[in-house]
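Journal club prep — side note

Before the paper discussion, L.F. wants everyone to see what a predicted structure for a comparable chain looks like in token form. Sequence:
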Amino acid sequence: MNGTNLFKIALRALNNNKLRSFLTMLGIIIGVASVITMLAIGQGSKRSIQSQISEMGSNMIMISPGNMERGGVRQGASDMQTLKLEDYKSLRDETKYLSAVSPSVNGSGQLIYGANNYPSSIYGVTQEYLSIRQLSVENGDMFTDQDVLSSAKVCVIGKTIVDNLFTGGEDPVGKIIRFNKIPFKVIGILKSKGYNSMGMDQDNVVLAPYTTIQKRVLAITHLQGINCSALTEDMTNKAIDEITKILRHNHKLKSTDEADFNVRSQQELSTMLSSTTDLMTILLACIAGISLLVGGIGIMNIMYVSVTERTREIGLRMSVGARGVDILSQFLIEAILISITGGVIGVVLGIGASFGVKFIMSWPIYIQTWSVFLSFAVCTITGVFFGWYPAKKAADLDPIEAIRYE
């Protein structure tokens, strides 16, 4: 019996039991759609996180004081004063792999303008901080080297500060705001960047010369941190090695001494978050894949029922010359047709559901071509795997016993 006839017989059998065939497909449809949707959500989240980290500066390196033991007491990084202005100057003048370096000191408090107030933090930095964090001044100007040298009470503010302090719609540039009773003249407004991947408002920021914050706000001489930017993302590790070498030399640390500073890069954060999202994506895909397994078991169950119902038909066909391989092929074709049809519907439904999640819930999605082909291939293999045993049972029936079957 040729393949065309077997295909027609399989189609006729499925057409005679439309509702049962559809219910059998349902497990495959849900499974394929779920896998595609879950992978799209997972990959979309991963790409969104990577994009936002890139916007923050993918080649950014952060140096902070490290934990250290003094007099038998383990002190936290916030209590340490190991980073000095000399460290910043050494990194600025001696490194080959850094494009920008900025010291960092900050304090928290209440910002006040007129009758409005808002809790925030003020960061003491240099102009290079803008390129490190990929920030830009949208209105007004950034403070100058002269402002840093003179510890000028000037600042640049983010959109969130503007919205909460200048509620009357006035231009903030040139206005005086107070931070813990200390007046600062607003000379610039930063371009809005929104929230980052960790839910932090990047526009809730006030930047001022680090010398001003050191002397007038915190009354300290040490640095709370140093922010750097590697020449390229690929040079980040070389830059970290170079930073470590310079700081250990400055701090007169022996090779056996524990470093009294920490060096972290955005690359590390990106890798950590990416691995987390990959793990969540795999977990979601595995949960969705259970539907495919359930769908495959459904196919096996229905094919068993079909073999039982058509035992006499199988016996008659075998008695007039149909071979076991013909019977096997017929039932396998039925199982594969159910799987492929369910797979096609599942792919369409999965893509539609992914875009539905994007537009209704505003979640980032990214549909990878391989995920569509993989889920479709898995559902086809599922059909063959779970359809083969019932088909083999049908092919092994004894024709005489099959004809006698009631």
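L.F.'s comment for the group: The radius of gyration is 34 Å. Keep this in mind when we get to the figures.
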